[in-house]
Amino acid sequence: MRSRVPLLQIWKVTTALHQPAPVNPHPSSQPLPPAAILVVDDEEAVNRLVARYLTHIGYTVLAATSGEDALGIVRRRLPPIDLVLSDVVMPGMDGTELASHVLAECPGPAIVLMTGQMPEEIERVNVGGHIVRVLHKPVNLDQLQELLRAMLDTFLPAEKLEPPQVAS
Question: How many other C-beta atoms lie within 10 A of the C-beta of residue 149?
Answer without folding.
Answer: 19
